[in-house]
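Re: your question from the hallway

Yes, I did run it. Sequences:
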Amino acid sequence: MTGYLGGMLVILSLNIILAYAVFLPVATGQLNLGGAAFQAVGAYTAGILSAEYDAPVIVSLFAGAAVSGVISFVLALSILRTKGVYLVLATFAFAQFVSGVIINVDLLGGALGMNVPDHIDGPIIAVAAVVILLLVMLLMQARFGLAMRAIHDDDVVAGLMGIEVRITRVAAFTIGGVLAGIAGGLYAFYFNFIEVQSFDSLSSVYLLLFVLLGGTQTVWGPLVGAAFFTVVPELFRYVVAHLPVGHAASTGQLDTSWRFIILGAITVLMMVWRPEGVVTRTGLGRLLHRRVEKQA
Amino acid sequence: MTLLEISGLEVRYGRNVAVKSVDLTVADRQIVTVLGANGAGKSSLLRAIQGVVPARAGTIRFDGRDITTSDVPSRVRSGLVLVPEGRQIFVSLTVQDNLLMGAYTRHDADVTRDVEAIYTRFPNLAMRRDKLAGVLSGGEQQMLAIGRALLAKPRLMMLDEPSLGLSPLFVQRMFDLIGDLNRDGLAILLVEQNTSMALQIAERATLLELGSVLISGPSAEVGRSEMLTQAYLGAH
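Structure:
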């Protein structure tokens, strides 16, 4: 595997894990605009343990996930009282808080970033993404997943059925935090360097976009969303460079930065045509049904 | 035997008093109806009994236990369910998953058998068990909401305006169903806009106006009372 493709696979894997980290709260009706901050918590926890205290990689990874999970839990207990746009703002504020702490604490390297000497290879990250994908699928099939979907549909009626709405929401948010923490640790050990810019608010926005545009109704949505937003911009590198409409003055080619404009346009069109996301429950049902008919 | 006993119940939303010093009892296997105009506090009363909104004053006793401060899941487990107004089913879940949500508080092995029993009672639901509940007709959605509530194995089912928005045929079927469920041993607390049918099926009736009990007694008595028209037309 070439370096470029290998790197792409790692980024894709990390984005898939992060997409599911954001998906779990969203599946209970909670928008999380602080996904990258939980990733940062995991990355810095793992990084410090490994770089400063010589902890083994696996221990550092799990510690990063645990710390991110604990912080998510404490945060969820308080901010899940808020709803809608206020919850979005609360998670966003948390992300800003994390950035502020990282920049101002010398131990964390401040604005200069931090070196993480221990390394893990790309394939391990890909395996981690597959395992997490399978675990989330199992979770959504289980009783807990059913409760999450019911809460997403109607939290009041879900409460009437005896579902512990608050506990379910806090649990979903916390598991999301753990997943983001794992992604953070993997990021730190793969790139061997972390800095606050890698986990900025734009990253959080992208994570939420993966989920919302991929589709929140089924467990496949985040996978499709993450894959789309990771792979398509890269494909555009080639497509845009080979478009026949030339840039007269220079090389006869469009500047590749046009790919972001095209991506933006596609994003808007997706929102218009597929407001519930690319993968919807009815769409998926129709697809599977058709396959069954063909076989018959 | 008294199953549900409420005394001096008060519900507030901020400064607004929705229910004030309401007394109400439902005996085992009895049908009781709560009547009153819009805004009389009927839905708030049911929501307070289920524990969705807190009781500001008064006590709620169910099956001999004081449940005034219990949370919703424990009330469901003790056999108290509310079928909310407006056919509130989970539209993006299948019919089967909707029913399973009704059994959420149960951990026994009989759930599968009980789900099949619901399908036997409602053959229309059986045919659509793998369809999303959102595609059901209004009447079927109401049947699903009741079937879902039945899966909690309730002893008292509270129904909030079950005939709302249903065709006359389905309204009749709904009341037949309520009668059937009652004969099977279920106590029912019914809030209805369809006053005449509610008075026919219920043994006792309580009439609310602006959150307070105006009159309470055997249905026939309440049905004859002048206060009934008063409560709906506001003539004083």
